[in-house]
């Protein structure tokens, strides 16, 4: 299966809009994704990884989030010729005003509506996932 990472597509409801948290890496091509990261050795539950990485990368705690349990999505792509799997769940930020605190891994973050989030999340599988989640939330 290659490398495995996990994270949350964090959203908030604010000003009559659903907004998604996208974060820009401070390394490489400075690409944008939701908070996520590699499963640590010994971590058997990928949701534990998702909570840990989300806290490390955005400062948002488990108690800040309401995870929608049956929203697991799996993205698979190659990085440097090796397969990588990324597992996401949808998670609502309970207090939409909660502050995001960046780590050194990211240089910026934005709360974006669906159209903007798809522009920043510049990969088809990411865009498909965001569209799928947005549909779930609006229906
Ligand atoms: N270039 C670099 N220079 C210095 N340090 C680096 C580095 N890359 C990683 N690191 C180090 O690795 C650590 C990250 O570890 P973690 O925080 O544990 O893991 P990650 O978010 O999964 O890492 P990454 O950003 O590499 O993953 P992504 O799949 O989004 O991205 C991996 C690649 O896949 C591409 N990608 C992302 N989403 C994709 C998708 N949906 N489809 C196809 N390609 C995609 C991205 O554009 C990117 O090129 C950082 O602390 C940093 O120190």
Characterization of the model:
It is a single chain. By secondary structure, this protein is of the alpha+beta class. 25% of the residues lie in helices and 43% in strands. The protein contains three helices and seven strands. A hairpin with a 2-residue loop joins strand 1 and strand 2. Helix 2 (114-120) packs antiparallel against helix 3. The longest helix has 15 residues, at 124-138. The protein is globular. The N and C termini lie far apart (34 Å). The model has no long low-confidence stretch (mean pLDDT 97). The structure holds BIS(adenosine)-5'-tetraphosphate. BIS(adenosine)-5'-tetraphosphate (B4P) binds at residues 5, 25, 27-29, 31, 33, 36-38, 75, 77, 79, 84, 105, 123, 125-126. Residues 1-134 form the Nudix hydrolase domain. This is Bis(5'-nucleosyl)-tetraphosphatase [asymmetrical]. Belongs to the Nudix hydrolase family.
Write the topology of this structure.
Layout: E1 3-14, E2 17-25, E3 32-33, E4 36-38, H1 46-58, E5 65-79, E6 82-93, E7 106-112, H2 114-120, H3 124-138
Parallel strand pairs: 1-6
Antiparallel strand pairs: 1-2, 1-4, 2-3, 2-7, 5-6
């Amino acid at each position: 299966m290659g490398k495995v990472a996990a994270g949350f597509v964090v959203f908030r409801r604010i000003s009559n809009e659903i907004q998604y948290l996208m974060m820009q890496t401070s390394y490489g091509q400075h690409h944008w994704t939701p908070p996520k990261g590699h499963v640590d050795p010994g971590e058997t539950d990928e949701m534990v990884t998702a909570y840990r990485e989300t806290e490390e990368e955005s400062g948002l705690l488990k108690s800040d989030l309401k995870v929608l349990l049956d929203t697991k999505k799996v993205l698979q792509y190659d990085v440097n010729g090796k397969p990588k799997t990324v597992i996401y769940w949808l998670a609502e930020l309970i207090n939409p005003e909660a502050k995001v605190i960046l780590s050194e891994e990211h240089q910026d973050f934005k709360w974006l509506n669906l159209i903007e989030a798809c522009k920043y999340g510049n990969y088809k599988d990411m865009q498909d996932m965001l569209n799928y989640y947005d549909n779930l939330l609006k229906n």
